[in-house]
Amino acid sequence: MSAPAANANTNSVSFPAPRVTLPLGTPVLQTYSGAFICLEILFGGLVWILVASSNVPVPLLQGWVMFVSLTMFVCSCLYLSVYLCGLADRVDTDWNMVDFVYHFIAFVFYFGASLLEAATTSAAVEPGSFNATRLGQATFITFLDFRQYSINVVATIFSFVVTVCYACSLTLALRRWKL
């Protein structure tokens, strides 16, 4: 057996070079992925603001919606800033895989949060009255006035819009990762 050369870098053989297929800097905003990330930030911020403005009438369900919308808003802002500042070129990792994993987790969390927001909204069948909704073994009684009901309807719609944006980003990330 021959011994490896003394000056050969064995780490370069073990770890592949970082793959970044999205452009760095402001040109990332001209791609479909950059546009979807901007839409995720915009509509995710709207979900967060709308749920907060409804005074969170059902904290058990809407607490998770607030957590997901706020966390994904911050993470999407950080993720976009990595590409805008050009930091993706300096960090040695497979950014296509990071992109896919991030958008998969965000999609799953937002889909669950959208379902919870829809369940909260549908619990108030008649605005101004109360309704009992049964989810599994638990029964939730929701008191929503017309203002809270209207805000929750809009928050539900935007929550599903953000979920669709994350699904589109996930599809684009999968295509880039498997290239």
Provide a descriptive summary of the structure in words:
With 179 residues, this protein is mainly α. 64% of the residues lie in helices and 7% in strands. The chain has five helices and two strands. Strands 1-2 form a two-stranded antiparallel sheet. The protein starts with 9 loop residues before the first helix and ends with a helix.
Overall SS class = mainly alpha
Number of helices: 5
Q: How large is the share of residues in beta strands?
A: 5-15%
Report on the biggest sheet.
2 strands, antiparallel
Distance between the termini: 36 Å
How many beta-strand runs?
2
Q: Shape, please?
A: elongated
Helix content: 55-70%
Low-pLDDT segments: none
Please give the structural blueprint.
Elements: H1 10-14, H2 32-53, H3 59-85, H4 95-122, E1 130-135, E2 138-143, H5 146-177
Antiparallel strand pairs: 1-2
In short:
By secondary structure, this protein is mainly α. It has five helices and two strands, in the order ααααββα.
Features:
mainly alpha
